[in-house]
Amino acid sequence: MNESDVKLERTEPKRSRLFSRRRMLACLAATAAAVYTDMRFIEPNWIGVGRHRVPILPAGSNPVRIVQLSDLHASSEVPLDFIEYAINLGLQQKPDIICLTGDFITHSWDEWDAYSKIMQQLSAAAPTFASTGNHDGCKWIARYGGYARPTKVVDMLEKANIRVLMNEREQVAIPNKASFELIGLGDIWADDFKPQLLGETKQDDMPRVLLSHNPDTKDLIENANWDLMLSGHTHGGQLTLPWGSTPFAPVRDKRFVRGLHPWKNHWLHITKGVGSLRKMRLNCFPEISVVELVAVS
Ligand SMILES: [Fe+2]
């Protein structure tokens, strides 16, 4: 073995380690770039349809199709044309009624007439009902530049012929289908929650469906008489870690962040919502939801 062979033996492992480290860093950088691109530019714009069936109608009833849209979050990050796309996707599902469960804006908003005009497409197609969320106006969102009350949002919805249920009740009767009672509850973060209606006897023992922005509301009305609660607020967790946890979901009870769940003697449905905050979603595509009420078997 001559001198040059010895040098080669000493330097080769260092080159190999350096190459591996560079390759690993390049892989990490490429993965981070791919995740960021997906999170920021792909997922927030790729809306799907979530479908569920809830057996709460009397035996022999025809199914009632509810289309639920929530957390539209109109803002510089969620423009009206994206919201209009979601509305059209909802209308393609041929709803019997449409339910909107709050957070129509993120902070402040200026284009009220344009917003009302696109929302009118919903009420023109089917009876449309709404409840409000914590971003629509309350002391909490006023601390972050929002409105102190949801007056502007309610005005926009009413101009669009949408019935806003603020701790109010409506009887929904769809021709040739079962009737049910719909109660819209004020939001718990907004201190607008008044559950007194839930203490009253259900009319003709009809199924009772609640619109309540925040699914944590359930714990305050656990023993009341209701069948299904339609909620949003969580955005499905918005960022879902690879092992499935949703640490950023703004709820106390992180078991119920998205989807349909039986709970006690009730049902909960939490939609992932249309918009998002800071236009970021990971493993959590936005959605409109089709919740079909069907007869108990
Ligand atoms: Fe929201």
What is the string of helix and strand elements?
A: HEEHEHEHHEEEEEEEE
Ligand list: fe (ii) ion
Count of helical regions:
5
Tell me the name of the CATH class of the largest domain.
Alpha Beta
| Architecture (CATH level 2) name of the largest domain | 4-Layer Sandwich
Secondary structure class reads alpha/beta
Spans of at least 5 consecutive residues whose pLDDT stays below 50 are: none
> How many independent structural domains?
2
Quote the distance from N terminus to C terminus. 86 Å
Task: Give the beta-strand count.
Answer: 12
Strand order of the largest sheet: 1-12-2-3-4-5
CATH homologous superfamily title of the largest domain: Metallo-dependent phosphatases
Q: Which sheet architecture does the biggest sheet show? A: 6 strands, mixed
CATH topology of the largest domain: Purple Acid Phosphatase, chain A, domain 2
As a whole number of angstroms, the C-alpha radius of gyration is 24 Å
Produce the secondary structure layout.
Layout: H1 3-42, E1 48-57, E2 64-69, H2 80-91, E3 97-101, H3 112-125, E4 128-131, H4 139-142, H5 151-159, E5 163-164, E6 168-172, E7 180-184, E8 208-211, E9 228-231, E10 259-263, E11 266-270, E12 287-295
Bound molecules: fe (ii) ion.
